[in-house]
Amino acid sequence: MYTLIPDSEIERFIEEDVPYGDLTTNLLGFGEQKGEILFTTREKTVVCCTEEAARVLQKCGAEVLFTLPSGTTADPGTPILKAEGTAAALHAGWKVAMNLLEYASGIATRTGTIVERARKANPYINVVTTRKSFPGTKKIAIRAIMSGGAFPHRLGLSESILVFSQHTTFLGGLDAFLETIPYLKKSAPEQKILVEADNAEEALRIAAAGADVVQLDKMPTGELTALVAEIRGRFPGVAISAAGGINGDNAANYAATGIDIIVLSSVYFGKPADISTSIIPTRNQHQS
User: Fold this and answer.
1) Whether residues 74 and 154 fall in one domain
2) Residue 72: CB atoms within 10 Å
3) Are residues 121 and 255 in the same domain?
4) Could you tell me whether strands 239-243 and 261-264 are parallel, antiparallel, or unpaired per DSSP bridges?
């Protein structure tokens, strides 16, 4: 699914890196020579932000010849983006495009690995990501996780209802909050009511009170398996999510408990994808 990154963001990325022109290329004097740039994977990668990287190069004055669509799984050595133009244009867009490709593809690849492992254990599992992306990078982060097969858990505070103990403490505790669920459903009939539980006993009380989703934080998988079975038997309309410390190593174990949703942040943090770049002069450009 495509997530629009506006031109203003693309222009901001370029301005951060090239605020006053490229001093090195200007001094060396080859800026008007023609050349081409090619980005290639060095490892198996779920590619992301090729379209945005292409727009970077276009705004710097290059012509894009080829892009591999975001969300494509590329084997090592696969070309993912190619453009041509003046050396000045190629060098101006090079690192901005490279950073977008490597960071976004790193997130997409980690996401794709987790989604694949989780769905092998539970084909119906939904993998969603939190709003813990680094400030200023949310649009790219969401683009990346969706390219990897996940969806956002919540985009921010404005569009979803998720209640934590940090909320209920202002209402006098969990039981006092649970009495407000009918009011919440009446006040926001198009919204699901998600409530996080600190333990199994709280989870059962939340389910009984009519919450749409019960979220368990850092619950061991053995305990979670038993709790899922009990909630399914007593409250079949309630969905169950698990959050806290879920990553590529344990996602399959959590999916196997029978939960509906895995909530995670781990995909945002890790090494970028390994992508190589070549910039070469166009052949025969000096011939008259």
Assistant:
1) no
2) 16
3) yes
4) parallel
Nearest-10 Cα torsion for 228, 234, 240, 245: -40
Sheet of 79-86: strand order equals 63-67, 79-86, 34-41, 275-281
Same domain for 31 and 166, yes or no, is no
In angstroms and rounded to an integer, the radius of gyration of the C-alpha atoms of the chain is 24
What is the token pair recorded at 143?
Answer: 């683009």
Do residue 127 and residue 88 come from a single domain? no
Dihedral sign computed on CA atoms, order 243, 244, 248, 253: negative
The residues with which 152 forms a beta bridge, in sequence order, are: 129
User: In a 3-state reduction of DSSP, which class is residue 146?
Assistant: helix
Please return the burial class of 123, using the count of CB atoms within 10 Å of its CB with bins 0-12, 13-18 and 19+.
exposed
User: How many structural domains is the chain composed of?
Assistant: 2
- The pLDDT of residue 4 is 77
**Within-domain flag for 2:** no
For residue 30, give its domain range.
7-107+271-281
Burial class of residue 166 (count of CB atoms within 10 Å of its CB; 0-12, 13-18, 19+): exposed
Exposure class string for 3-36: b at 16+ Cβ within 10 A, else e = bebeeeebeebbeeebeeebeebeeeeebeebbb
What is the mean pLDDT, run by run of 10 residues, along the chain of 288 residues? Answer: 78 95 95 97 98 97 97 98 98 98 98 98 96 91 96 91 96 96 95 96 97 97 97 96 96 98 96 97 64
